[in-house]
Structures are given as structure tokens and as C-alpha cells.
Design a protein that fits this description.
Blueprint lengths: L2 E7 L4 E7 L1 H11 L3 H18 L5 E10 L5 E9 L2 E8 L16 H5 L2 E9 L4 E7 L6 H11 L4 E10 L2 E12 L5 H13 L3 H6 L4 H9 L5 E10 L5 H9 L3 H9 L4 E4 L6 E4 L1 H10 L10
Parallel strand pairs: 5-10
Antiparallel strand pairs: 1-2, 1-10, 2-9, 3-4, 3-6, 4-5, 6-7, 8-9, 11-12
Helix pairs in contact: 1-2, 9-10
The structure holds zinc ion (ZN).
């Protein structure tokens, strides 16, 4: 079962979150039929969303979007409270992107992403979105998340994200984010940098059976880590028939009138999970006739 833990270290001056995300990345890969490079990019971003979604502090959800000039173009991931744990969903605009491995034998995620921006949107409990945008540091996702923490939140951090994918599936996925809190001493800063440099690849640890607490220990063994919370993680979507109907209604009277005259049915596919909502021509006509009379409900 995928899961996430939150922890502190160095007497509370380092905040750590770690997650094993193999299953949810595998589900995203299967739902979107992603090639290995696209799987790696999407899986890293979904893992980052899960980790950032665990520290929402009064926010309802966090959405990450990477928009680059590489062949992937856009990769989107979102994490939100779901039951007792965290739900994560995401997609890549071009899931068939697959590039030769980089010189170091790793996926060429930066080549697939290219140059561009990372957008982080936190939606607060009152529905108000708060967005920060930073330029991509490397396009490797992990570096870009660290760049976001540094420039947008003025927080030095260590970010390690990994996805091990084969053409047949996802073998391992997970990640760790450690942030320095105000009041961190000089030697803690040095110890964290040292630990980050020595941290084995997350995918190697997960593949060898490490759970999230083991990932925390792998990073912070010398900083007296204390586990705080363990949360289940799963692939989940927030789409619904109600939202699809709202989107159809919002097409406007002219477009809806045309659809009704042509007795058109309409299939709507959710980008995030691939679910197809089928609306018959009668249902389209009903939506068109209620247009303007039914108040749209706020998006949840
Ligand atoms: Zn969906």
C-alpha cells in the first residue's frame, strides 16, 4: 500500500516528508498508457504533489503544473484530502513521449520537459487559490520543486524524487522532501546537505523494500528523526457527472442550441483519470433547456 510519513529532525528544525508511490504512479501510467520517460516525469510530479499535499496547513489541495517547451509540453498533478489519507491524480499532455536514456543511465526527463515554468497552486479551505510560479531549474522535477521552495517560500530544502519504469510497468517510485525550518543551526544545514549528498537513489531504496519511515531514516539518521504521522496514499480523481454537466452547460446557449438541433450526443473524457462520461442527445437537450435556470454549483 502506498503511504506517506511526516517527520521532524534536529529538534524540530528540519521538517521531512517521505512517500512510497509505486502503486499510484503505476495506476496513472496504466490509465494514461504512458511511455517510460513520460511515466518518470508524471510519477515524479505526482510524488511531489503527494509530499506537498501532506503539509497543506489550512489548504484544501495542491496542484502542480510543469509547462515546458519540450515534447511533453504539460504535466499536471494534484493532491487533496481523500478519506483518511491523500488522493493524488495527474496526467501528461503527451503520454507517448519516450526519449533515449541520458548519459548517466537515467530517464531524460529534463529533455522531455525542456525549459519553462513550474506553477504551484494551493487552494485554501475557502476555495481561494494561491499560486506561485518559478522558472524550471533543470526540468528534472526534483530540482524544480527545490527551486520553488527556495524562491517562492524562501525555504532551503532537499528534494529527492524517483521513478523506476520499464516498458512493462513501474518498478518503484517514491520521494523525500526535507525543509529547513526557521532557527536551524549552521551545523544542521551542513548535516542536511551532507545527508542529501549521501542519500542513495530513492528508487533503489524502495525497490529493496524500504517503506517511508526507512526513507526518512536513510536521509536523517544522524539528525534524530521523529515520525509524526502516517497517511495512506492512493490514485483518486475529483471528477463527477455533476461537474461534466456543469461544463456542458457552460458552453453557452448558441453552442448548446446547435447541439440540440443536430441531436448530438456528447462524450466527455476526464483528463486526470481517463473516465468517459457519455451524455445522450436527450440528456444534452435537458441540460440545454435548464441552462440559465439552474444555478451552477461551485466547483468542489
Ligand atoms: Zn477523473
Amino acid at each position: 500500500m502506498d503511504h506517506l510519513v511526516t517527520a521532524t529532525a534536529a529538534e524540530g528544525t528540519v521538517r521531512i516528508r517521505a512517500a512510497v508511490t509505486t502503486r499510484l504512479v503505476a495506476e496513472a501510467r496504466d490509465r494514461h498508457d504512458c511511455a517510460p520517460t513520460a511515466s518518470a516525469a508524471l510519477g515524479r510530479l505526482m510524488t511531489a504533489a503527494a509530499l506537498m499535499g501532506s503539509g497543506l496547513k489550512g489548504a484544501r489541495r495542491v496542484a502542480l503544473q510543469v509547462a515546458g517547451d519540450g515534447p511533453l509540453r504539460n504535466v499536471v498533478a494534484e493532491a487533496f484530502e481523500s478519506g483518511e489519507g491523500i488522493g493524488v491524480r495527474g496526467y501528461a499532455l503527451h503520454p507517448d513521449v519516450d526519449l533515449p536514456l541520458a548519459h548517466n543511465g537515467k530517464f531524460n526527463v529534463s529533455g522531455a520537459v525542456g525549459r519553462g515554468v513550474l506553477q504551484v497552486t494551493r487552494t485554501l479551505e475557502n476555495g481561494q487559490p494561491y499560486t506561485g510560479i518559478v522558472e524550471l531549474t533543470s526540468g528534472e522535477i526534483g530540482d524544480d520543486i527545490a527551486g520553488y521552495y527556495a524562491s517562492s517560500e524562501q525555504t532551503p530544502s532537499v528534494v529527492a524524487l524517483g521513478v523506476l519504469a520499464s516498458p512493462k510497468g513501474i518498478l518503484a517510485a517514491g520521494g523525500v522532501i526535507a525543509e529547513l525550518m526557521p532557527g536551524a543551526r549552521e551545523h544542521t544545514i551542513d548535516a542536511l546537505a551532507d545527508a542529501a549528498a549521501k542519500l542513495p537513489p530513492v528508487t533503489a531504496l524502495v525497490r529493496a523494500g524500504a517503506d517511508a519511515p526507512a526513507l526518512v531514516r536513510a536521509l536523517a539518521a544522524n539528525m534524530e528523526p521523529k515520525l509524526l504521522q502516517r497517511l495512506p496514499l492512493r490514485f483518486a480523481c475529483r471528477c463527477s457527472r455533476q461537474k461534466v454537466e456543469l461544463a456542458i452547460r457552460s458552453l453557452g446557449a448558441a453552442t448548446l442550441g446547435e447541439m440540440v438541433r443536430e441531436h448530438r450526443s456528447q462524450d466527455v473524457t476526464c483528463d486526470y483519470c481517463g473516465r468517459v462520461y457519455e451524455l445522450t442527445s436527450d440528456e444534452v437537450a435537458t441540460l440545454a433547456s435548464s441552462d440559465g435556470r439552474t444555478r451552477p454549483r461551485p466547483q468542489g
